[in-house]
Amino acid sequence: MENQVLTPHVYWAQRHRELYLRVELSDVQNPAISITENVLHFKAQGHGAKGDNVYEFHLEFLDLVKPEEEERLNKLRLESQGSPETLTSLKKGYLFMYNLVQFLGFSWIFVNMTVRFFILGKESFYDTFHTMADMMYFCQMLSVVETINAAIGVTKSPVMPCLIQLLGRNFILFIIFGTMEEMQNKAVVFFVFYTWSTVEIFRYPFYMLSCIDMDWKVLTWLRYTVWIPLYPLGCLAEAVSVIQSIPVFNETGRFSFTLPYPVKIKVRFSFFLQIYLIILFLGLYVNFRHLYKQRRRRYGQKKKKIH
Q: What is the pLDDT of residues 182-235, one digit of tens each?
């Protein structure tokens, strides 16, 4: 009779503190799942490799299962054939394409700025906005998707760091540079665009490879390291652009307004720019702290053994 017992296909995946099992059955009915000492027992009616039958298996672990760990049995999920794999493939394909488009966009900016600098020298600083703005607009508008992905759970990225970077960059790009022609010819535009693109040409290909479960050690190290000098430099360049824009906004009066009667006080936009400078460095602290934790989790700190 033992030869008549049908065993389903079981897939095993393991992380540091979690174990995942996927039993390849569809239309499952009356599943019986239990753990006895160090053995996981499974039995259910369902459609598997041998058609619609009763399938069962017993999986022996190397050690006893702690009683409290039995509550985490929900990590074993019964999945219909094809549908979860299809959804996972679509998700990975979508994220791969998004990261690919962003990588190509920022690479185009980085390569063009580098080539122009070697050909034109310092003269390339002053027309950076007019030659690179369209692509930067495209990439930064597309980056809204990244924050949405984090907010709805498509990616595991925390929402706040994504939102801080999105709002900060778009404020500099659309308000400081985009609305003031006087700012578009300044050299600081070059340094802002260059630091942004340098960070992203390593970040997005890292995410691309993660979508297909590949880990290139050199790229991984660069992704978790280049931000250390580039994020403060980028923040400094953004702060310089804001400081340089204050007299321009004061002179033009753009975005300034007068409070209604009886106050009748004129509020200059430069007042909000000064507040933004404080927020800018607070945002740098939040993102720097987040990235530092990521790097620490990835590489850890080797504890010295005390003899």
A: 999 999 999 999 999 999 999 999 999 998 888 899 999 999 999 999 999 999
Inter-residue long-range contacts of 70-73, CB under 8 Å, 24+ positions, other chains counted: 70/35, 73/33, 73/35
Q: Compute φ and ψ for 241, nearest 5 degrees.
A: -65, -40
- CA dist., res. 80 & res. 28, Å (int): 8
The pTM score is 0.71
The residues carrying an active-site annotation are 231, 238
Sorted by where each begins, the domain ranges of the chain are 9-77, 84-285
pLDDT digits (tens, 9 = 90+) for 132-181: 999 999 999 999 999 999 999 888 888 998 999 999 999 999 999 999 99
Q: Quote the radius of gyration of the chain (alpha carbons, Å).
A: 27
Residue 9: count of CB within 10 angstroms of its CB:
13
DSSP 168-204: HHHIIIIIIITS-HHHHTSTHHHHHHHHHHHHHHHHH
- List of long-range contacts for 51-58, beta carbons under 8 Å, 24+ apart: 52/27, 53/6, 54/6, 55/6, 55/7, 55/8, 55/23, 55/25, 56/5, 56/6, 56/7, 57/7, 57/8, 57/10
